[in-house]
């Protein structure tokens, strides 16, 4: 990675110093793309740890004070809390400040946050399609966004210069940066991210509740079950908020998935060998093609 000659961001304030916020802070610091990083959050122990780990330069428990002098604010808290956070900081932002976020659902966030900005300050929605099942600043790492995509979701009201800067920040983090409208983002993510999490959480609960073997069934699980359900170890609050704010699209994909499970059930019930093989072959080909 090459270092930037002058920092792209003068002072970055990260609100919610966890996996997503911490990883962006780490990569921008590592690349010399930021002058100073201020961590903002509710838990002092976590913020202190952020300083110890070299993720942030300093921290502040009061968001209204923490955003002072920041030219970019990155909000990386669970989706439902993002508008509340932005409402709180909006009157305290410097002129020219860009607020962006990493929330997994975009229409809810962008619709709520855009009107909160006062003239001369800007909101640009964003979502890195990168993560792990782990949370907290300890789980953050500088290469999280390398070779991944970060979708940026402007509206017709978005300031072009602010959009360009947010695109540049994610490019510095190593990501390709597709631009799309928030509603398209939410429908796509419902299929490729939210549905798989709903299925994984359901699968673990279903197998756990399948009590024909007198308990301890999960303890016998091996590679297949563990690979498939890794994401069911993700943070419950994060996923509660995603399910609450992208409800319609998630329900549509869940219904669509149920139809496919129904088709497979019919093939199993009919002992339809060629049908089963064709079903599995099609799936294998599609998945192999994205590896
Ligand atoms: N984990 C992933 O794989 C992933 C990937 C892409 C986007 N996201 C999104 O990024 C955001 C952050 O996720 P994460 O995985 O970094 O979570 P995390 O739990 O690792 O970090 C979130 C941080 O925000 C803090 N926080 C929570 N509510 C807050 C509030 N009201 N005010 C201030 N701080 C608050 C928490 O204490 C924590 O430090 C979420 O919106 C999530 O949907 C997550
Ligand atoms: O790899 C993982 O653990 C993830 O769940 C990351 C993942 C996903 O790919 O679904 C989860 C939610 C985000 O909003 C973006 C990425």
Automatic annotation (TrEMBL):
Pathway: Amino-acid biosynthesis; L-tyrosine biosynthesis; (4-hydroxyphenyl)pyruvate from prephenate (NAD(+) route): step 1/1. One of its GO terms (biological process) is tyrosine biosynthetic process. Residues 10-291 form the Prephenate/arogenate dehydrogenase domain. It holds the Pfam family PDH_N. It is an enzyme of class 1 (oxidoreductase). It comes from the Bacteria. InterPro entries: 6-PGluconate_DH-like_C_sf, NAD(P)-bd_dom_sf, PDH_C, PDH_N, Preph/Arog_dehydrog, Prephen_DH. Coiled coil: none annotated. It catalyses: prephenate + NAD(+) = 3-(4-hydroxyphenyl)pyruvate + CO2 + NADH. One of its GO terms (molecular function) is prephenate dehydrogenase (NAD+) activity. Keywords: Amino-acid biosynthesis, Aromatic amino acid biosynthesis, NAD, Oxidoreductase, Tyrosine biosynthesis. Its EC number is 1.3.1.12. Belongs to the prephenate/arogenate dehydrogenase family. This is prephenate dehydrogenase. It comes from Geomesophilobacter sediminis.
């Amino acid at each position: 990675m090459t270092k930037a000659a002058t920092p792209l961001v003068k002072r970055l304030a990260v609100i919610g110093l966890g996996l997503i916020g911490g990883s962006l802070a780490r990569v921008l610091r590592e690349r010399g793309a930021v002058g100073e990083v201020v961590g903002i959050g509710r838990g002092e122990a976590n913020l202190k740890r952020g300083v110890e780990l070299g993720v942030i330069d300093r921290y502040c428990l009061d968001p209204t004070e923490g955003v002072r002098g920041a030219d970019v604010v990155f909000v990386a808290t669970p989706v439902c809390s993002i508008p509340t956070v932005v409402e709180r900081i909006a009157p305290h932002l410097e002129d020219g400040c860009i607020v962006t976020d990493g929330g997994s659902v975009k229409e809810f966030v962008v619709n709520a946050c855009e009107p909160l900005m006062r003239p001369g300050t800007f909101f640009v929605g964003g979502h890195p399609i990168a993560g792990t099942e782990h949370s907290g600043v300890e789980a953050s790492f500088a290469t999280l966004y390398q070779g991944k995509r970060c979708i940026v979701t402007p509206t017709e009201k978005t300031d072009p210069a602010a959009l360009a800067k947010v695109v540049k920040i994610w490019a510095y983090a190593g990501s390709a940066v597709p631009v799309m409208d928030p509603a398209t983002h939410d429908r796509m993510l419902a299929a490729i991210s939210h549905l798989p999490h709903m299925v994984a959480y359901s699968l673990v609960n279903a197998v756990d509740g399948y009590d024909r073997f007198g308990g301890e069934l999960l303890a016998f699980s091996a590679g297949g079950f563990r690979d498939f359900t890794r994401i069911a170890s993700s943070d419950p609050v994060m996923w509660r908020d995603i399910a609450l704010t992208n409800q319609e699209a998630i329900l549509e994909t869940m219904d669509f998935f149920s139809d496919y499970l129904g088709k497979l059930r019919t093939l199993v019930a009919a002992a339809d060998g060629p049908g089963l093989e064709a079903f599995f072959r099609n799936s294998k080909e599609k998945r192999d093609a994205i590896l």
